[in-house]
Structures are given as structure tokens and as C-alpha cells.
């Protein structure tokens, strides 16, 4: 028993023996019995029960025993008073068995008022708890409350930023950093009967050119003395032809560091740095194996953003300018998750259900938390229109600049509790991206060659031997560009069902079609010039996908699984901007995707994905890809 318990037990002992008749004349020892009122004893017993020294049954037993002792003490007091009244002189030399104080205390335990009629003497009883008992009770209570109070204070200090505004410059408190890192194990398994490839010098069994070709490498040589597809294939096959037969394991890393600053009400500025292949807009991955070199570290985003919120915190519109996040509700069928947009955009919202309180407890999740899906920068229960103008390539003559003009209309609706429906129809028009054939003896349209492609889109020769350029004698072609225009219609639907608590089920359907493909126009301009396909319209793409699990992995044992089937014909979307992992990037591919995400610790998770893909048209081209990603962020 601890010190406080001993002290309280001493007090209880005093209450139980208050009427025992201890001699009042004798000097009081250190542990003298102290009579107490019933209310005082009950309070002390309650305190012992609350502190866990005794249980409830034991406490009730102590109080009952004290009551019985009090009745006995009262009886003794009444008997002594009666005897004293009958023989007053006899009290002089005898020791009293019960004092007036005992009678007072016993009367209070019996429920009678002090100094009631019939009681002799006039006394006033004051309950007393020794000072050392009070001190020890205070010390114990203080010790037990200290940790809890400190936690509350620290929480309030963190939430309210105590001391920070005064201790730091205002601009420091307004900046919010973010960080994430990903280490990837990427293993590619190619079909052993794939046609073409480096081992077959890009030829199929019948001797036809099938590649698959690295168009960027071939175009880089177009102005030199080794220009031409056949020349490059014979001299530099490892550069000019893509690998499609040798399995490959790569270790890759992505590191991103961002800062966002609140400049004024609704206005903020942001910048994000990332490891990057500067020439690749759809990947921030750095392949390991550069021990003798340093990583490239580039500005991935730099932007201004303004959000207009009314007095009810309703977000009516957002404006973006600079190198910005993808502002559109979309999937990786059209835009790779790593793609940043350059230009200006605005998203305008018309809220509905403003009188409802169902949004009060809803917290909008990170729109890109599920890999490959972008739920858009929207607010639930609103209709929205998003418009954007994005320069893709600046050409010396401004009328030849390459642009993306984009528009989207849709609805974001909490249809039931936290279950959310997103619908969107989009139109993306890519201006000046298609190839134009060079006039005889001229390089006038060299600028129409793409800055970046992956693979899949139909390609035509911008210049070949028939253009009579001194450095181009290749009859197949020296410089190549996109055969088709790209005017893409895209319809997207997402339903996030939240009827299973923290476990959500997200259904996604995505459809895209290129309305800009014109076979007759291509043939009329390029005639018999080389085309990488038969130029039949292959302009449709779709994906269906289901995700089950938590919307965003934040802690240990959070999980999410997904399954998708994707079908992307060669000219359905621009191959430069679509997913860079499915079929190793590009279009003309179909197949399955399976994924598993699992939380390993706070803000740390594993992302395992498996892709099984095949070419839709042309020679056989199969790839199975396994990606294991270890992710962390703060």
C-alpha cells in the first residue's frame, strides 16, 4: 500500500473507532485517532475507489462498518449521559466512556442534527483532514494529471502555432514543404516469339521492316551524314531499334521536393523539384547505374494558383498558371500520372445542395492517391467546367507553335453519405503536332518532327530521297513525324462507393476516341512515302477498372487492390503523353493490370503491380512487366 493509501486508512480507522472511548486526558500519540463526519468518510472512500486503492465493494463495506460503529457509539453516549444525569458527582473521578464529541459524531452518523434536543452540552464539530494527507493527495493527483495536461497543451500549441508567428518571419510560417521518394524494381519479360527486334535487325520473317523503332534516335541523325532509317538500323541497331526480346531488370528512383506558399487569401505559389529525365515528360524516374555521374534534378512544377471561396467556404473557381498539376478528371489512358501541364487553366464550379449539411463531415481525399487515376481538382456537389491552353513546343515562327487546347464539363456528386460520383466529358485538341512533308530541296517542315514520342502512333516520312536533300538519300525516310492529327474526345466516369466504412470500392470507366484521324488527307499529302502502318483508322481506346481498399494509404496495414483491362488502338491518343509503363509506354496495346498497395508504416507503403500486354495490330509484341515500388512521403 502506498503512502497516500496508508494515510487514508488511518483516517478511516479513526472514523470506525471514534466512539471507542480513548482517554481524552492522556497526551495524543502521533497516530492518534481522528473522529470525522460521515460525509468526510464517504468522500475519502470515493477517492480511494477512484484511485484504484480499493474496489467499490470494499468501499461500501467500510462505510457500512463505520455506520454500525457509529450506532454503537451513540448508544454508549446516551447511556453515559443518562448515568451522569443520575449521579453528577460520580463523574468527577471516573473516566468517561464517551465524550460529547463522540455523541456529536455518532448523532451525525445516525442522521440526527448536531446539538439536537435532549442532547447535553453545546458543541460545534468541524471535520478535519491532516495537512500531510492533503499534501500527499495533491501530489498524487498532480502526478497523474501532469502527462494528460501536457499532451493537451502540446496538441493545442501545435494546432494553434503558439509562439511561431512571434519567433519566425511571417513568410516562413506561410511555406508548406512536401517530400516523397520512390525506389522501384522494374522487371520486363518479353515474348520469345516477338517479331523484329535487335536480334532480327528490325525485320520480320518475310523481311519487312517492323522495328519496333526508336523514332527519336532516328530523327536525331536526320541532319547528319548518317541520316536515314535503313542507315541507322544497319549502323546503330541498339539505338535505332527498341528491345523487345531480352528480359531486363532495372532499379529506378524518383525523388521530389516541393514548397507551397500562401501569399494572400486564396492565392498561393508553388514549386516542385524532381529527379528527371529532362527529355521525357512522362517520367521522373532516374535509372540507377550512374555511379560516375550525378542525377539530373529539374523544376517539375512552378505555378500560381488562386481559389475563390465565399463566406461559407464554397470554392467557386480555381485559376492556375505556370507549370501545373493535371487539372482534369482523367486516367492514365490519356495522361501519364507524372505529366505536368504548362500554360493556364481555370476550373469553374456551380455548387448545388448548398442547404444540405452532408458535406460538413466529408473530407475530400487526395485526387491522385490511387495510382493512375486523377479525380480532378473539384469540390463535391458541384457542376464544373475546366478550360486550359497549354503550349507544347515553342517554334521560332509563332504561327507554327504547337499547342493543346482543352475543355471539360462534368459533375462531382456525393450521391449517398460519402459515396461519390464523378462524371466528365472532355475534348483535347493538339494543334500543329501532325507531320508535314518537306518541299523538294527544303527543310521547311522539319519543325513538325515531334520533340518526344514513345511508340505506337502511325508515323510518316517528313523527308526522304524524293525530297532531294543533300544529306538524305534513304528511300524509306530520314525524318519522321505523326501521320494523324489528334482531336481527342474523352468520357470518364468514377463511382467511389463508401458503404463498407473505411474500405471503399471505386469503379472507373474511361473511353477515348481520336476525331482528327483522316486517312485520305494523309495519303494525299504523303503519297507513297513511308508509313509505319497501313493507315487504317485505329482510333479508339477504353479502360475498365475496380479498386478496393482505403482511398489513401497513410499508416501500417492500410491496403488497396485494383484490377483493370485496357485497350488502346495506335492512333486513339497521343502516344507521347499516355502511360509510360503499360506495354512499356505508348499505344497499340491491350492487356491486364493488377495492383496491390500495402501500408508498411506511417506514410510508407509498398506498391506491387503486374502488367500483361500485347500489341493489337502488326507483328507479335508481348510484354509482361512487374513493378515493385517502395514509397515514402511527408
TrEMBL record:
Residues 79-93, 106-118 have a biased composition (Low complexity). InterPro entries: Porin_5 (IPR032638). SUPFAM superfamilies: Porins. Residues 1-25 form the signal peptide. Residues 79-119 are annotated as: Disordered. Keywords: Signal. The keyword Isomerase does not apply. The keyword Signal applies. Pfam families: Porin_5. This is Porin. It comes from Methylomonas koyamae. The lineage of its organism: Bacteria, Pseudomonadati, Pseudomonadota, Gammaproteobacteria, Methylococcales.
Amino acid at each position: 500500500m502506498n503512502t497516500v493509501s496508508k494515510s487514508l486508512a488511518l483516517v478511516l480507522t479513526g472514523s470506525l473507532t471514534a466512539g471507542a472511548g480513548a482517554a481524552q486526558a492522556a497526551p495524543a500519540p502521533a497516530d492518534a485517532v481522528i473522529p470525522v463526519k460521515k460525509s468526510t468518510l464517504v468522500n475519502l472512500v470515493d477517492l480511494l475507489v477512484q484511485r484504484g486503492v480499493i474496489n467499490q465493494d470494499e468501499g461500501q463495506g467500510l462505510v457500512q462498518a463505520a455506520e454500525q460503529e457509529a450506532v454503537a457509539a451513540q448508544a454508549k453516549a446516551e447511556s453515559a449521559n443518562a448515568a451522569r444525569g443520575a449521579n453528577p458527582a460520580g463523574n468527577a473521578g471516573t473516566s468517561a466512556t464517551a465524550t460529547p464529541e463522540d455523541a456529536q459524531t455518532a448523532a451525525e452518523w445516525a442522521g440526527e442534527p448536531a446539538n439536537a434536543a435532549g442532547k447535553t452540552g453545546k458543541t460545534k464539530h468541524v471535520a478535519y483532514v491532516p495537512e500531510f494527507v492533503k499534501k500527499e493527495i495533491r501530489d498524487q493527483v498532480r502526478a497523474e494529471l501532469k502527462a494528460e495536461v501536457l499532451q493537451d497543451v502540446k496538441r493545442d500549441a501545435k494546432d494553434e502555432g503558439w509562439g511561431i508567428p512571434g519567433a519566425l518571419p511571417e513568410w516562413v510560417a506561410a511555406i508548406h514543404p512536401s517530400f516523397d521518394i520512390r525506389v522501384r524494381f522494374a522487371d520486363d519479360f518479353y515474348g520469345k516469339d516477338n517479331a523484329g527486334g535487335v536480334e532480327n535487325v528490325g525485320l520480320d520473317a518475310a523481311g519487312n521492316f517492323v522495328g519496333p523503332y526508336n523514332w527519336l534516335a532516328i530523327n536525331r541523325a536526320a541532319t547528319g551524314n548518317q541520316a536515314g532509317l535503313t542507315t541507322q538500323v544497319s549502323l546503330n541497331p541498339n539505338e535505332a531499334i527498341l528491345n523487345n526480346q531480352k528480359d531486363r531488370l532495372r532499379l529506378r528512383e524518383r525523388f521530389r521536393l516541393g514548397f507551397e506558399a500562401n501569399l494572400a487569401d486564396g492565392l498561393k505559389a508553388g514549386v516542385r523539384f524532381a529527379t528527371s529525365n529532362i527529355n521525357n515528360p512522362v517520367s521522373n524516374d532516374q535509372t540507377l547505374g550512374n555511379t560516375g555521374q550525378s542525377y539530373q534534378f529539374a523544376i517539375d512544377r512552378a505555378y500560381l494558383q488562386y481559389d475563390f471561396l465565399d463566406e461559407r467556404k464554397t470554392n467557386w473557381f480555381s485559376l492556375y498558371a505556370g507549370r501545373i498539376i493535371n487539372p482534369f478528371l482523367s486516367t492514365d489512358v490519356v495522361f501519364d500520372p507524372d505529366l505536368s501541364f504548362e500554360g493556364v487553366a481555370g476550373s469553374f464550379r456551380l455548387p448545388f445542395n448548398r442547404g444540405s449539411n452532408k458535406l460538413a463531415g466529408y473530407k475530400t481525399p487526395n485526387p491522385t492517391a490511387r495510382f493512375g487515376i486523377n479525380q480532378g481538382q473539384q469540390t463535391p456537389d458541384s457542376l464544373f467546367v475546366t478550360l486550359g491552353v497549354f503550349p507544347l513546343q515553342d517554334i521560332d515562327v509563332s504561327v507554327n507553335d504547337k499547342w493543346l487546347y482543352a475543355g471539360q464539363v462534368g459533375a462531382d456528386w456525393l450521391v449517398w453519405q460519402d459515396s461519390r460520383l464523378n462524371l466528365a466529358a472532355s475534348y483535347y485538341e493538339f494543334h500543329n503536332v501532325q507531320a508535314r512533308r518537306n518541299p523538294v530541296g527544303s527543310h521547311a517542315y522539319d519543325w513538325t518532327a515531334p520533340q518526344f514520342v514513345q511508340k505506337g502512333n502511325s508515323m510518316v516520312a517528313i523527308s526522304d530521297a524524293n525530297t532531294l536533300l543533300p544529306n538524305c538519300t534513304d528511300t524509306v525516310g530520314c525524318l519522321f513525324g505523326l501521320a494523324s492529327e489528334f482531336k481527342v474526345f474523352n468520357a470518364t466516369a468514377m463511382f467511389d462507393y463508401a458503404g463498407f466504412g473505411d474500405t471503399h470500392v471505386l469503379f472507373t470507366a474511361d473511353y477515348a476516341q481520336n476525331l482528327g484521324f483522316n486517312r485520305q488527307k494523309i495519303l494525299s499529302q504523303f503519297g507513297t512515302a513511308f508509313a509505319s502502318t497501313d493507315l487504317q483508322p485505329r482510333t479508339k481506346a477504353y479502360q475498365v477498372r475496380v479498386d478496393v481498399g482505403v482511398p489513401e494509404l497513410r499508416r501500417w496495414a492500410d491496403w488497396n487492390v485494383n484490377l483493370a483491362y485496357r485497350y488502346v488502338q495506335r492512333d486513339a491518343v497521343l502516344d507521347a503523353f499516355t502511360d509510360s509503363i503499360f506495354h512499356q509506354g505508348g499505344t497499340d496495346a491491350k492487356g491486364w493490370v493488377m495492383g496491390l498497395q500495402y501500408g508498411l508504416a506511417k506514410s510508407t507503403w509498398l506498391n506491387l503491380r503486374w502488367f500483361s500486354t500485347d500489341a493489337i495490330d502488326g507483328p507479335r509484341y508481348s510484354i509482361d512487366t512487374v513493378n515493385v515500388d517502395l514509397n515514402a512521403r511527408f
